[in-house]
Amino acid sequence: MTQPTIAFIAEEVGVSVTTVSKVLNGHADVAAATRERVEDSLRRHQYQRRTARRAAGHIDLVFHELDSVWAMEILRGVSAVAGPDGTPVMVSHLDGQHRPDRARIDRLLTRRPLGIIMVLCAVADAQHRQLARRGIPLVIVDNDSATSARVPTVGANNWNGGLLATRHLIELGHRRIAVVTGPRDVLCSQARLAGYRFAHESSDLLVDPALVRYGDFTAEAGLTHGLRLLDRADRPTAVFAGSDMQAMGVLRAAERLGLSVPRDLSVIGYDDLPMAAWTGPALTTVNQPLREMAGAATRMLLDLARGIPVPADRIDFVTGLVVRETTGPPA
Amino acid sequence: MTQPTIAFIAEEVGVSVTTVSKVLNGHADVAAATRERVEDSLRRHQYQRRTARRAAGHIDLVFHELDSVWAMEILRGVSAVAGPDGTPVMVSHLDGQHRPDRARIDRLLTRRPLGIIMVLCAVADAQHRQLARRGIPLVIVDNDSATSARVPTVGANNWNGGLLATRHLIELGHRRIAVVTGPRDVLCSQARLAGYRFAHESSDLLVDPALVRYGDFTAEAGLTHGLRLLDRADRPTAVFAGSDMQAMGVLRAAERLGLSVPRDLSVIGYDDLPMAAWTGPALTTVNQPLREMAGAATRMLLDLARGIPVPADRIDFVTGLVVRETTGPPA
Question: Which residues of A touch B (CB under 8 A)?
């Protein structure tokens, strides 16, 4: 297997070496049709940029959104591995989108990163091939959609987290347990909800569909859903709030309605953010080792960039229950 | 005034053009003595890299530490201006140091940034000249030491914030008011403390030295100092907590000692982080417009990098009081 040179590709397509190089580096000033033909030829010849050229450079860390302390925990984890390695970290976000568009991928390529870490977002298959051809490895942290086998991913076991949280409430004696999970179209929300359902099933309890809500992981969503759930005659005695921020919103809703936590209502969060230990009362939650996850993703990426094979395509960190003061037996 | 060429500098010092270029770009492989001589010559001839060459590139955003949601607010503010401008942002931190060492500045230079934003840290005068010679502008956000006139700085009026917070408590009727400010050697801590003192003076109240504490802006510090301050017979009826995280710690201390907020104790934070509205009870605090401050610093930097003069060397954002639920009249 010999690797085709850029000159070979240029000759085959009938363009200059500069044009091929521009396409490889994601410059915008190549006509769409020409670019298509160059990409075609690169694909056909399985062009792979030599990894040696990629051993230097920065890590491009792409968030779907820069919100809350969640993103900061990821950044700290990446930084803790990249810093001592001497690899700079470039941070950007997709304005809340979970899929980058072509222009954004092109901009990423222009920066010639050593590798890319995407957080709560992922690329389309064609974009992934575009990166692979340039020898730019990609690692995803906590992706929101079914994992393609070829993209290394670091996540946490969300189904297990939902199960742990709900089982804790059932064991305390709760029978009417509400859930406010994340957005409907985000995989981790669905996995946590599935864990909640399985905990009910395995204890022969029915789930009341009126108690299942979809939020967006913000405190505001916790407050809104909390007020609706708790302001009814057959109100739940416990809420699995799907995220620590949503849990803070539910706690505020309880306070507004004069409910005391955990006497009148148990609340459990998800994430175990640094502030979870400091809310009043301190939040019972599910620990996602965000920093460790981000650190593992970074080590994986640095290995891939240096041509070292990684042991697994997907690493799932184990979630654990952290019992503090917001959960107790029902009144 | 003609600008000396690199070749001119090289000839004067008696080294190659490559060596001068290496010194300019911060490469480590130049002998210390040689480097010194090159730097000398650059300084003598007031060598300034042409700004045109610096119009492209990334922003290097340097934190003293990546802690808490405070840093995330700054990153969001920088990103909100740099993103639409198409300028990438590289993020690093100084492991809690407020002064970068030479090796770190050299690494920064190797990356050839368009400009540098330093948050809660600053460079020595010699390092600033090193940057200026390379035409790399520097802007500081909320610097921790007296501002040198030549370094553009964006801050918030900390003295005013300390005054507002303390005056609010005095107006509510409090007479024994404790303060837990930040570290002793950080200017903003001292400015907030000075505002606290001035509020007392202007109301003809004496400050009890036993009620003045220095923390480190963490919730842990708030808890430790809170327990000590509140577990005494002549305990204060109000605490100005210096930061929202410290306020969360003080709230936990009050809870542990069975004190109800705001009935038995008023607590006021500083920063107005997103979560401040969601603590139970919701935190009264001083608003620092962190995102706007970071945005202004970024605009300043981009202007400087493009040779556009900036209107002021120091911009101070006005701090404002946000009254929520943790403050009230003393019992």
Answer: 58, 66, 68-69, 71-72, 75-76, 79, 83, 86, 88-93, 95, 107, 111, 219, 245, 248-249, 251-252, 255, 274-275, 277-282
